[in-house]
Write a structure and sequence with these properties.
Blueprint: H1 3-13, E1 14-17, H2 21-26, E2 31-36, H3 42-53, E3 57-65, E4 69-72, E5 75-78, E6 82-89
Length: 101
């Protein structure tokens, strides 16, 4: 694979940070949550975090989230399935999302 294409792919793996009570609690232990592409694997997610935030990743855990069923009038619909990743950083590294700015 072309190195330029690989870097482009890594830039598309992370879709955004997860903002919840759980991610705020685990951020104290150098662990962060991200919404990621559904076809991304653990290695890609780790490399993408290292590229975007210039940190060292110690481990990655991935969770597939099933979309909820929602009713709109008489019709029953379904939200899209998505994927999230919890990334643990090596000691001494942290990510600042600009909290309190």
């Amino acid at each position: 694979m072309n190195p330029g294409q690989n870097k482009e792919r890594l830039m598309k793996v992370l879709l955004g940070p997860l903002v919840s009570e759980k991610t705020a609690r685990i951020a104290d232990s150098d662990q962060y949550g991200f919404r990621v592409a559904t076809d991304a694997d653990k290695r890609e997610i780790g490399r993408a975090v290292e590229l975007m935030f210039e940190v060292e990743v110690a481990g990655v855990q991935v969770v597939n989230v099933k979309g909820k069923e929602k009713r709109v009038g008489k019709r029953l619909g379904r939200r899209q399935d998505w994927r999230k990743a919890y990334v643990r950083l090596k000691p001494g590294h942290n990510i600042d999302f600009g909290v309190g700015a």
